[in-house]
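Researcher: Batch entry, complex prediction.
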Amino acid sequence: MRYLPHTSEDITSMLEEVGVDDLDGLFSTIPEDCRHRGDLNLPEPLTEWELNDRMGALSDSMAVSPEYKMFIGAGSYEHYIPASVSNLLGRSEFLTSYTPYQPEISQGTLQAIYEYQTLTARLLGMEVANASIYDGASALAEALLMAFRITKKRKVAISSLIHPLYRRVVQTYLEPSGYEIVELPYLDDGRTDLSRLAGINDLAAVAVQSPNFFGCIENLKEIGEMAHEKSALLVASFTEPLAYGLFKNPGSQGADIVCGEGQSLGIPQSFGGPVLGMFASKMKYVRSMPGRLVGKTTDLDGKRGFVLTLATREQHIRREKATSNICTNNSLCALAAAMYMASIGGTGMRELAMLNYDKSEYLKSELKKAGFKINFESPTFNEFVVEFPAGFENTYERLLEKKIVAGLPLAPYYPELSSHYLLCVTETRTREDIDVLVREVKS
Amino acid sequence: MKEISDLILPDDVRYAEDHEWARPESEKVRVGIDDYAQDQLGDIVFVELPQVGDTLEKDEVFGTVESVKAVSELYMPIGGEILAVNTALEEFPELLNSDPYDDGWMIDVIPSDPDDWDALMTKDAYIEALKGGK
Amino acid sequence: MKESLGTSGLILNEPLLWEKGKKGRRGFSIPRRDVEFSPLNEDLAGEGPDFPDLSEVDVVRHYTRLSTWNFGVDTGMYPLGSCTMKYNPKTNERQAGLRGFTGAHPLLPAGLSQGTLKLMFELEQYLSEITGMDAVTLQPAAGAHGEFTGMLVIYAYHKSKGERRSKIIVPDTAHGTNPASAMLCGYQSVPVKSNEQGILSPEAVAGVMDEDTAGIMVTNPNTLGLFEENIKKIAEIVHAKGGLVYCDGANMNAVMGIVHMGEIGVDVLHLNLHKTFSTPHGGGGPGCGPVCVKKHLEPFLPVPRVVEENGKYSLSEDFPESVGKLHAFYGNFGVMIKAYSYILSMGPGGLKKASQLAVLNANYIKEKLKGVFHLPYDRPCMHECVFSDELQKADKVTTLDMVKRLMDYGYHPPTIYFPLVVHGSIMIEPTETESKEDIDLFIEALKAIALEAKENPELLHNAPGRCKVRRLDETTAARKPCLAG
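Model: Structure tokens for the complex:
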């Protein structure tokens, strides 16, 4: 086997050194009643070429671009990834290295993550960002736990327009400790209804997503003011960071903690993972922050260098009092995002965000012209909700057969929105794709 | 790490098992960590102290002290109300290393129970305890 | 004289991204605009982020140069104990890069996602077979995430019995994520000491096990590289009082095809695909931390679960007692592909051989280096062995000094100062993918360093000397953190 370099001579010679007769003899400390009986019941090994065939068959059975025209987002977005990013990410010094605990031979990863932290902080308008959490959902859960630690309170108000799957993850994280979650409903304009906040006290945080699950931009400034009046933190979540290339970032609107999904920044969709939990906060809360942090420093010769720092927050030192149990994070994905942000630049990001916005607005206006109802009037970024007539499921199926995915049906997540669909248009859809979709749904 | 004979252990303070020192100053008692503690911890990077006005019992945790790779909790050598906190440590945690008994003081306490003081060790008893522990 | 593996050579400096670039430079091909500009609400519009503008050449040179400052498994031996830095097969990368996988949206109807669902279903079965457990979830995104999931399963189990236990037993050799994960479920960690042989004794566990204890978190083989020989008895003790046994499977690389986790009394176990199953570490992730359970805990696994009917795969939420969700979607699918490819490439015999050779390599190193370094537990080890710096104390040389010097010799340091039960510990895990010659060279390097400790300790105190930077001021980095530029 090409990953096992030992020859039988090697093995014999080493066994002699160890003082054991055969490989089985190495396991003498393992009692008989702890052992597997017989061989593992697994498929016989494949050659590299057989593996290619097998995996190729699995891959070919999937519905992907460009054969399928996708108009679906909802937390996983189709964006172009430059060849340069994919190529650089394959460099084995990045790919096959470990967490940079030995900084002298990990300056590549450390500087790259310091740059990622900086670009993330700038994108979100915050003072400090960490080196990643697993995804937008776990990042939100960690943000709420951080708010509990900072405020020493046990209740949070969460908008029902935060991604439904994120809210479920939050519930899972918070349940065993008995933290209280108050859900804020939504208004006809597609934004969070804040009226319920008036009667609630002892809030650790108010959490909203912007753009929210319906694609609408929330009034973070107003929500932040209400939260701060109650001595609560504003936790701003997101699923599409590209929006901040165009719209005001959460930091500028008063957010205390910003957390969300960075997959749009140069990371393939990959059936939902691995993706990227982006996490940032105000500097005054940094010692309560979960996750790794890279800091700038100097070496014995006074040269600039980078190290993991503030490690006393983390599990390997603080153990049960740690700010989180997180150890392995999504470092390579953070690296991909940094490479993407470096490639696209400030000017490019604005252009790309504008293109997403304009293409989405084009679909919106074409659907309106065709007589379909766009429910929520609030401004959106690259996703919005449309109400199709009853019985649209058949059209949806027909469109799938034509290899068009006409959005995400909202019924499973919002039963009151039974004929509503969440459509997404990114820079990867052409005007022609959009025209075809409109034509098809009209017929 | 210093040898026990090299440790700076003044006579005008008493010592707790967890290496805090306490010095009576008129009606209050000043508390800090001793030379053994700062030597063991190494370069101190961060100190967390209680709020003025907090009331804590003897042996209760009153804060934490962090080096790069370790965290230690700080225990009240005597119980009482926190009268003052050395805010200089926020910006200069290194004072704990360079001057643990003076500029590196941590808290001033108004003692609630005079018996707590008697339970603390004199310098000689503390040295014996350190030797025994080693 | 043979040349050292570690040498110095020309590498290039590289500034921070925002120290380069020029406004208007472009590193990205902006797609063609084929729609009109739409009006934008000025109140909502922002300035856009303050990113530098760089050309593609700038970006490629930047990251290429940064990569040369790193050391990966592909560069050389990486004997980090507990991390299993084995070779990362390149065919795995090829498979994970297939278009049908990278472009897969997670919320399409199941009929359009048969490839990914089938892969997940089969991977669950393979892991179930390898561990000897009954059911698997692939959802946790890392080992610690899996530990949290396992704690949730244990919590849910007790809740289903109408109980709310408050404690969990955690051995003194446990990885820091163990008590941290337990705390997320509100469990207080009750410590238990390992005995002089470096393993847990049934009496010690019996001494702390009661009806308010939810269970025990063991690592087996443990972090000293030793098999917990008393595990069956310990499991019985815990079970007798209604508790469950959680096993941290980070060290699974020692026992594939050899130990049957289900047989030894483990109720719930997590694996690290980025350790045992060869997926690359990526400088700190992404990983994948599947959780494997016995039948009685299957109802509590996170949802959705992949189910199969007549050769068709789909996702089901129909598990009312499930603990819920840990990840927005299904976990790190891109990592699962690599583990799946690895298992198919190795086959049952290959996996067992990998474990045997991992253990052989570790024992060989142990035998060759004992006497050079202090060996606290002189007994057969599993896939890793632990030394300490006791013998170098007289020369005032520490573990830290020695491993910093090891970098100059061309090796990534082993794990240091963990587990905490050994003062100045050096944990060496070679893995099975290191050849005898490479291990012999590694041993020679360590012997040379032990000699330097006696003859030239200053060299070690100032090491490393050949890397891009020398030792870094971690104190100032912590006192005055500078976390963004």
